[in-house]
Amino acid sequence: MAAPEMTAGKIGFVKKYSDVMIAVGIVTIVVMMIIPLPTILLDLLLCMNITLALVVVMSAIYNVEALDLSVFPSLLLITTLFRLALNVSSTRLILLEGYAGEVISSFGNFVVGGNAVVGFIIFVILIIIQFLVITKGAERVAEVSARFTLDAMPGKQMAIDADLNQGAITDAEASERRKKIQREADFYGAMDGASKFVKGDAIAAIIIIIINITGGFVIGMVQRNMTVEQALQNYTLLTVGEGLVNQIPALLISTATGIIVTRAASESNLGYDLIHQLGAKPRVFYIVCGVLLAMACVPGLPGAPFAILAAVCGLIGRQISNGDKKVQETAVVEKKEKTKTEANKPENIVSLLQVDPMELEIGYSLIPLVDTGQGGDLLDRIVMIRRQCALELGLVVPTIRIRDNIQIKPNAYIIKLKGVEIAKGELLLDHYLAMNSGTVFEEIQGIDTIEPAFGLPALWIPEASREQAELNGYTVVDAVSVLATHLTEVIKAHADEILGRQETQNLIDNAKKNNPSLVDEVVPDLLGVGDIQKVLANLLKERVSIRDMTTILEVLADYAQATKDTEILTEYVRHAMARQITQQYTQNNQLTCITLDPAIENRIAGAVQRTERGSYVSLDPDTMQKLLNSLTKELQKLTDMGYQPIALTSPTVRLYFRKLVERSVPGIIVLSHAEIDQSVEIQIIGVVKL
After folding, report:
1. Do both 412 and 465 map to the same domain?
2. 107 and 220, same structural domain?
3. Which residues of 234-269 are buried (b: 16+ CB within 10 A; e: fewer)?
4. What is the domain range of residue 408?
5. Is 196 in the same domain as 147?
6. β-strand partners of 447
7. 3-state SS of 591-623?
8. Which of 300, 596, 639, 684 is the most buried (most CB within 10 A)?
9. What is the spatial distance between Cα 161 and Cα 165, in angstroms, rounded to a whole number?
10. How far apart are CA 164 and CA 176, in angstroms?
11. Last residue of a domain, which of 225, 245, 268?
12. Chain segment 185-243, per-residue pLDDT in tens
């Protein structure tokens, strides 16, 4: 066990000081261009250059996707700089000493047989392959990939939002996908620029070899008194050897660059994909076998090589066919066993108990609203709705699952809360909804309907009549906007039901990030999560935003020691949020409302009955009927004048008065004097009397 532990320790040391090692390495590369190197060290570095190139190209081959080697652009720069430093060092030794180590000499003599002309030709061919073929193609692919990646970013972001809304992925997965998209854009953008390093390296190699040959020829004849042939032979061989030593790693790096930028999304490495994709169809190899046999029979062509290759292709095709048959047989056996196992396995009905917080069921005619391929933007609208609810109410709406339902009308939709239908409507996709906003001076023809969100009379009109309807004073909206508005209003109306204990806990955890001491004071010593949830639900029920959790928790911390009644605590919270409530219902710093006669308030206060499960108001039927009649009459004055149905009461009876009338007078807004900012002017239109 000692050896593995020592190896792990060394690897850990390298990882720990990797930044220092890279910094020292880059500085050393720059110094190599200035300080002469001994031939032994140069040989080692040249071999290291080849080794590094092999490591890079092997890493590129075994990559599953491009981001697995996201450091490649920086690596490309470092390897190019290292190769150029070796060029400078070897050039210095060639020109000064006429000798640059065993590696360069071996490549100049053994690899090209000591023939300078052959070596020069091979070098030129390598340059052409690298520069015109691999580098040029990789540069173009990197440029196009960068452009396409940037263009595709908005669509990918929308797809992520769609999956998130449908519940296919979690918030963490969505965040990870967004990070990946950004990394891809950065990577391909960097590769677009980094590919220029390889191109510049190829150009530099050509210039360096010309300089080396020319300079060596001059130095050999002038300073070393060589003949023309000796100078050309010696320095040309050394220069060509140096060029080959550096161009082979350069060619490997260029190949790695091409592999990286041309790598498509896959779940396996390059070798696996090549074998499995090229060998997927045995018919291909049978056809190739037939063509090769035909070529082997053509007079004048070498028959033996074509015949051998034809036999190889035939054997490959036969092996693939046999493998496919075995796979099919195995699949049939596995399918039978799986069917038998599932038939014997008891049905798992636990999954059927799962109820989605919110659902939207649509008829088959409304599917285009969800299909982005057909221009549907409903998923994007839902994202905006969730964002709007978070800003206006402070409520994080859970994922809204969208399903198609063939059992409902094709143009119908149903909104469900915890599996129960709470709203529905119908849409005409090829029509627009026109509503009379009170400014219509000329009516138009259309299909009579009711606007689902607010219950207003409306018309479905064709697209051709849209412009005319707008000119006549109608408010015109498209079908998807009708559905989005309806869904928004449903969420606001049932926000108190949507908010559960888990959602409350999430809000508390979020508040704890900035106010840990406040949260620790309230939860769990003073109030539990369930108590706080009830207070928040009471606020949402009257459409009071709970976004300011800090203020809410501070009020609860102040008053929870005196009472645990969540309804009374809610009233205290409302008093503290007076400025917010006032801003919500005032116009031009003026609150127009009706109020209650003091006699009625005294009657309500005296009729309050308190129990262990809460409090309620007990009034006799006659008094109750008179109160409702008077209230309806006074509220009608407000609505006729274009104001909201607001009733102003004293703080002591606000809660109980709302409980008394909320079922009979839906939509009424009940405020108390303690919830109105002192700077607001109160205009009382009427008084509710018995």
Report:
1. yes
2. yes
3. bbbbbbbbbbbbbbbbbbbbbbbbbbbbebeeeeee
4. 372-496
5. yes
6. 460
7. EEEEEECHHHHHHHHHCEEEECCEEEECCCHHH
8. 596
9. 6
10. 12
11. 268
12. 777 677 666 666 766 776 777 777 777 777 776 777 666 667 666 666 676 677 777 77
